[in-house]
From TrEMBL, chain A:
GO cellular component, one term: plasma membrane
Protein's recorded name: 4Fe-4S ferredoxin-type domain-containing protein
Record InterPro entries: 4Fe4S_Fe-S-bd, 4Fe4S_Fe_S_CS, HdrC_iron-sulfur_subunit, Helical_ferredxn
Gene3D superfamilies, sorted: Alpha-helical ferredoxin (1.10.1060.10)
Location of the 4Fe-4S ferredoxin-type domain: 23-54
Pfam families per record: Fer4_8
Record keywords: Iron, Iron-sulfur, Metal-binding
Tree of life domain: Bacteria
Coiled-coil positions: none
GO MF annotation list: iron-sulfur cluster binding; metal ion binding
Automatic annotation (TrEMBL), chain B:
Taxonomy, superkingdom: Bacteria
Cofactor(s) the protein needs: FAD
InterPro entries: 4Fe4S_Fe-S-bd, 4Fe4S_Fe_S_CS, FAD/NAD-bd_sf, HdrA-like, MvhD/FlpD
GO molecular function: 4 iron, 4 sulfur cluster binding; metal ion binding; oxidoreductase activity
Keyword match Acetylation: no
Gene3D superfamilies: 3.30.70.20, FAD/NAD(P)-binding domain
Domain 4Fe-4S ferredoxin-type: start-end pairs: 531-560, 561-590
Swiss-Prot/TrEMBL keywords: 4Fe-4S, FAD, Flavoprotein, Iron, Iron-sulfur, Metal-binding, Oxidoreductase
Protein name: Heterodisulfide reductase subunit A
Source species of the chain: Sulfuriferula plumbiphila
Protein family (similarity comment): Belongs to the HdrA family.
């Protein structure tokens, strides 16, 4: 990471914007934002705690060369993919995708905020789902409940017990899944496919950085 | 020449008039009170049969004056088109039945209304003559265009193409003006993506090849005298001699200058050669193109790697120090100039610092194209530019990130968008604003452009900020000097595409003016009007009020101090008629008498009948149409008003008000257009003068011992369709509160 004076000098030049264009999914769209603020105004979660900067501001920060503030921001992790912003943006920016692209890029660089709940959930969900090719909901929710230790896990579990019992009654929850999760038909095939996709992605990103 | 005066009246029964009104009684009123013996009711007057009946009377019965009791004078103008006779129209449809409820108890007052309008129509027709027009005016078809920039060249080419000879006068040694100095210009056609050739060379060769266009370079106008159809322009030429050209109309297209960037030292102008205005950058770009290389930094000739555009430099300034307005082109211009860099080398950082990006016309597409090319737009207000060595630091307030201390360092070039200042001539109103604070910042120009021979001053009057006069809503090119039209950035700030459109519009108006002058008809907005003010000189007291108040400088004084009319300058507004204290000015079909006799023709019920009478004098351009439209919506209004349309509130002579009050009217409403800086008056000063005159009416009212509420002036726009009936009904309520006028029955 650069020292503060060279970072200040980099402000408002196009270096970070160019980096985003090269490295972030749909990052080439950032320059098209005209700062109308419709996306921020349309975002249903933007006024919740955790939204450090609404999308419009994130785009301005990218152009202003605020690399660290952008990549360590909580904002892009808060996006719920409701697509309101995309629908309304008069410049047709794929804002949702850019937000996810930024989150992913920060994650890969390893500078995304630690203990970010969305980031945690995303990891949990991904690892859970690629194992068998299916989401194991029981494991997923338990993983989430026990994230902050055993005691907190029990407390969380108890708080959700009515929902759990309801699901049980409606045969929507099978306790044995904990021990013998059922998977999709061709688990090997899934794993091979994901591996291939990963390789392709790495190659593409390597070309971009080169 | 009118032979014998023979008056006939026609009363329509169509459109429900026959069912709602007692036609027999109406005929009776026309005969007995209106004293017109020949009255013909018709079930459908505007039908072929109805019109043929009237035409037959004109052709075979020698009818010379007709009164039509039917719909509004604004309706069925095609059917009731009898140019050979004088005509008055009583408005029974929009004016009466459409604004009254169809109920038993309303029947009596509705009938009374209709009868009054017929009495008024009879009175009017008897005091009218059919205007004949004065063919004794100039007939020059040549157009003088002053200014050889894009606007002037467009005007010249358009006029020549239409078949009118043109004299083009340019103060510099070549045609092209500002546009010729541009490396490229903002596109005006699809796909609005890249700068295009400035187009000047083509226009110049088209002008040179056109035998209908005579060009004077290095020439100015030494004197302009005369009137539409017969202007004389004395042109001071290169050789020092003066040539006189006879022209019919004039287009002034004298353009603009860039606001002086030396007034912006905080932006580094004058402190570093690397800070330029938009004109300066065009020059750098042209030099680069000639050299076939990149744009260079003026301080040391190194290629520019980063450039910052500062929008609104000294514009949209609320502090009163610089220009208060937006010049409307510089945002697009900066986008274009950023492309000069990006199109050659995409790695050059081009940042546009703006507070609001204003890209009129198809500029939005051009803006998007700039974004696609990687021009960066940052919403921020620049506070200062600090030159250091061969670069500059631009300090600004980032308005999105709300960072007061944002800055761009190491900018090789800073371009200031300073905007347009009109090249208008002497500000003839200067004395009036002299007292005001520096905010007015209207510089006293000493060099006149047209050197008009008008008693009102040497140049076309100016509106705000020194831009020349024009009616910004209705007829943008029209100045207060009939036959002289302004176009392009001298009229308001604009870009090339708009200037070309403007030039075309102004040229067409100029052609219309000279053609109208040739047949003795009025210029816009009363084009086609052949009536003309005449003065009964025996009665004139040489008070000069008409001379001073005519908004169009149409009246001079002769050697003895009597008014001397310049007929083709006159716009037929009647302001002079309203001004004359001894009432010696009149038009054939519109005079103190035609309106005064209508006012007196209304029957005034006695004090105890609880039926007030309210006179409405309504501007025929806005207020009267608004009333007609309210009637189309069937908006109910008072049965006690009697409306008389007037050409302009400026034509209202105070005697009408005094007479109305004397004869027992309870109140008078005057409806005219908005006046002041953002006037909408079709005759510019008419409604303002009327307002001024009416402010004196209060004294008269007090003299009569009457409440001042009884006479009110209103500003009404043509869109006030809901408001006008409400004003009328509120006024009626107020009259009931004050009580009936004590002057009834005297
Ligand atoms: S809505 Fe679109 S253009 Fe507007 S601020 Fe958001 S991203 Fe930018
Ligand atoms: S066109 Fe743009 S830069 Fe020029 S005054 Fe208007 S807003 Fe400012
Ligand atoms: S005041 Fe109006 S009507 Fe009278 S001379 Fe002037 S332009 Fe003509
Ligand atoms: S206003 Fe009437 S009296 Fe006065 S100079 Fe004009 S015409 Fe004569």
């Amino acid at each position: 990471m650069s020292n503060s004076s060279s970072q200040a000098a980099a402000r408002y030049n196009n270096n970070f914007l160019k980096e985003v264009e090269a490295m972030v999914e749909e990052g080439n769209w950032v320059k098209m934002c005209m700062q109308c603020g419709v996306c921020s105004g349309s975002c249903p979660t933007n006024f919740q705690a955790g939204w450090d900067h609404p999308p419009q501001e994130i785009f301005m920060m990218i152009r202003a060369g605020k690399r660290e503030e952008v990549l360590t921001s909580q904002s892009m992790w808060m996006c719920t993919s409701c697509y309101n912003c995309i629908v309304r943006c008069p410049r047709k920016l794929p804002i949702t995708h850019i937000m996810h692209g930024l989150a992913n890029y920060a994650h890969r660089l390893g500078i995304a905020p630690k203990n970010q709940p969305t980031r945690h959930f995303a990891k949990l969900f991904w690892n859970n789902c690629i194992q068998t090719g299916r989401v194991n909901e029981l494991k997923l929710s338990l993983g989430l409940y026990f994230r902050d230790g055993f005691k907190q896990g029990i407390i969380n579990g108890l708080a959700m017990k009515d929902v759990g019992l309801g699901l049980l009654k409606a045969k929507r929850l099978n306790p044995f899944e904990l021990f013998k999760p059922h998977g999709c038909k061709d688990q090997k095939g899934i794993h091979a496919m994901l591996k291939k996709a990963h390789e392709i992605e790495e190659r593409r990103k390597a070309i971009k950085t080169a | 020449m009118a032979v014998e005066k023979k008056v006939a009246a026609y009363i329509c029964q169509g459109c429900g008039l026959g069912e709602r009104l007692d036609t027999a009684a109406l005929v009776d009123v026309v005969k007995k009170e209106g004293k017109i013996q020949q009255v013909k009711p018709h079930p459908f007057l505007c039908s072929n049969a109805g019109v043929a009946m009237i035409q037959n009377d004109i052709d075979n019965e020698g009818v010379s004056h007709i009164m039509i009791g039917a719909c509004s004078r604004r309706s069925k103008t095609d059917a009731f088109n009898f140019p050979e006779v004088a005509m008055a129209r009583a408005n029974l449809r929009e004016g009466v039945i459409w604004i009254r409820p169809d109920t038993e108890e309303a029947r009596e007052t509705t009938q009374e209304m209709a009868e009054d309008y017929l009495r008024m129509g009879c009175a009017e027709i008897k005091t009218m003559r059919q205007p004949e027009g004065n063919p004794n005016t100039g007939t020059s078809r040549t157009l003088l265009v002053v200014g050889g920039g894009i606007t002037g060249m467009t005007a010249a080419l358009e006029a020549a193409k239409t078949g009118y000879p043109v004299v083009l006068v340019e103060k510099s040694g070549q045609l092209g003006g500002w546009a010729a100095k541009l490396y490229k210009r903002v596109p005006s056609h699809e796909p609005y993506k890249a700068p295009v050739d400035n187009g000047v060379a083509d226009m110049v060769s088209a002008i040179e090849a056109d035998p209908n266009i005579k060009v004077y370079l290095n020439a100015t106008i030494a004197k302009t005298s005369g009137a539409p159809g017969r202007f004389q322009a004395e042109i001071a030429t290169e050789s020092g001699s003066t040539v006189t050209e006879d022209v019919g109309a004039i287009v002034q297209a004298t353009g603009f200058a860039l606001y002086d960037a030396n007034k912006l030292p905080e932006f580094g102008y004058g402190k570093s050669p690397n800070v330029v205005d938009q004109g300066g950058l065009e020059q750098l770009a042209r030099e680069a193109a000639e050299r076939g290389g990149p744009i260079l930094r003026p301080s040391d000739g190194q290629p520019v790697k980063s450039v910052v555009f500062v929008q609104c430099a000294g514009q949209r300034d609320a502090s009163g120090t610089h220009l208060a307005y937006c010049s409307g082109h510089c945002c697009n211009t900066s986008i274009k100039q950023a492309m000069y860099f990006k199109d050659v080398n995409a790695d050059i950082d081009t940042t546009v610092l703006y507070t609001d990006l204003r890209t009129p016309g198809n500029g939005e597409d051009f803006y998007r194209s700039g974004q696609e090319k990687g021009v960066i737009f940052t919403k921020g207000k620049v506070s200062s530019v600090e030159p250091a060595g061969n670069t500059c630091k631009v300090n600004f307030h980032d308005l999105i990130l709300d960072d007061q201390h944002a800055c761009i360092e190491n900018a090789d070039l800073v371009v200031l968008a300073t905007g347009q200042v009109p090249n208008s001539g002497v500000n003839i109103d200067f004395k009036a604003v002299e007292g005001e604070e520096a905010a007015a910042e209207v510089e006293k120009k000493t060099i006149s452009i047209l050197n008009l021979d008008y008693r009102q001053g040497k140049d076309v009057p100016q509106l705000k900020y020194g831009f020349t006069d024009s009616h910004f809503i209705c007829f943008p090119y029209e100045t207060r000097r009939t036959g002289i039209y302004t176009a392009g950035p001298v009229r308001r700030p604009m870009d090339i595409a708009q200037a070309r459109e403007d030039a075309t519009g102004a040229t067409l108006k100029a052609i219309q003016a000279l053609e109208n002058a040739a047949i003795g008809s009025a210029a816009h907005p009363r084009s086609g009007d052949l009536s003309y003010p005449s003065v009964r000189m025996e009665g004139c007291t040489q008070c000069k009020r008409c001379t001073v108040e005519c908004p169009f400088g149409a009246i001079d004084e002769d050697a003895k101090g009597y008014p001397l009319m310049n007929e083709s300058r006159c716009r037929r507004c009647g302001t002079c008629m309203g001004a004359c204290p001894v009432r010696v000015i009149s038009f054939e079909n519109y005079s103190v008498d035609t309106v005064g006799s209508q006012i007196k023709a209304v029957s005034i019920p006695d004090e105890f009948s609880e039926k007030p009478r309210i006179l409405v004098l309504a501007c025929e351009n806005d207020a009267y149409p608004a009333m007609d439209m309210a009637a189309m919506n069937r908006t109910e209004a008072s049965a006690f008003v009697r409306v008389v349309p007037v050409r302009c509130l400026g034509s209202v002579n105070t005697i009408w008000i005094t007479d109305a009050l004397n004869s027992g009217y309870d109140g008078v409403m005057l409806m005219g257009c908005k006046h002041g800086d953002e006037y909408q008056c079709h005759f510019v000063k008419g409604s303002e003068l009327a307002n001024y005159r009416m402010s004196k009416i209060d004294d008269t009212l007090k003299g009569f011992n009457l409440e001042t509420d009884r006479v009110q002036t209103y500003e009404v726009a043509i869109t006030d369709i809901d408001r006008v009936p409400k004003l009328i009904n509120d006024f009626e309520k107020r009259m009931f509160e004050i009580g009936m006028s004590p002057f009834k029955g005297f």
